[in-house]
User: Fold Enoyl-CoA hydratase from Thauera sedimentorum.
Amino acid sequence: MNYENILVETRGRVGLITLNRPKALNALNDTLVDEIGHALDGFEADEGIGAIVITGSEKAFAAGADIGAMANFSYMDAYKGDYITRNWERVKTCRKPVIAAVAGFALGGGCELAMMCDMIIAADTAKFGQPEIKLGILPGAGGTQRLPRAVGKAKAMDLCLTARFMDATEAERAGLVARVVPADKMLDEALSAAETIAGYSLPVVMMIKESVNRAFEGSLNEGLLFERRVFHSAFALDDQKEGMAAFVEKRKPEFKHR
Ligand code: HXC
Assistant:
């Protein structure tokens, strides 16, 4: 498949999607987000892939939704077409883990796309922000919902209301980012984390992803109940037998369902 706005490749057991609209700092248009969805469909169906990385360029992960494309929209255009978020949830519904590898700007929809992924690994050059207020709009792909859950109300209000950018150190301190690494090591770090995940039992990886997302999205009691049910079901997996036998026998596990 030839994509217009992204590059898609596999690195070992990892699927890599690189946003590729360099002239517009990877501004997210409808086609680009459709293409991400299509690439994720492919990786999800591919048994050789255990985890996915989405990255951008050195200068920008993505500088937001494409402002030119929406500048003249009417309310009806936006509402009827479910603009632009119609196809965004595909990142969230992917059952394999998705890592956002972020260097440079991750602004507006770019920050929201990163937050839809399961974790963010950032270069020390990364800058996160929700500057939509400067354009007379507000975040529309989860910025007012995922950001407070990640960094707390105070910082989320600060970013959304003042439009200031948060650097990688602040983002890590606040809990938005899992790891910060030097820019030239960032993609390797993300690919290596993804390869590690892809080496584990895929059903267990998916159970963990689903359970952690429950903590993010629902109440504590619901989440604990969900975790317990999934935890018990893990004992039905031959990978559980293998993982524990390998520990007892002091050898590396050979997971069957990767
Ligand atoms: C369209 C964009 C863009 C965007 C940058 N470009 N961001 N085009 N949509 N979101 C284009 C510029 O127009 C310019 O094109 C080229 O990319 C390089 O950008 P510069 O501004 O020249 O670069 P620089 O001076 O380094 O400034 C970088 C920047 C700035 C700080 C990131 O570009 C910027 O503020 N961008 C907009 C950020 C933003 O407001 N994002 C939120 C968008 S709304 P030309 O052709 O002039 O070279 C949003 C809503 C989401 O995301 C709602 C739900 C999905």
Remarks:
- Residues 30-45 form the longest helix (16 residues).
- The mean pLDDT is 96.
- The two ends are 25 Å apart (CA to CA).
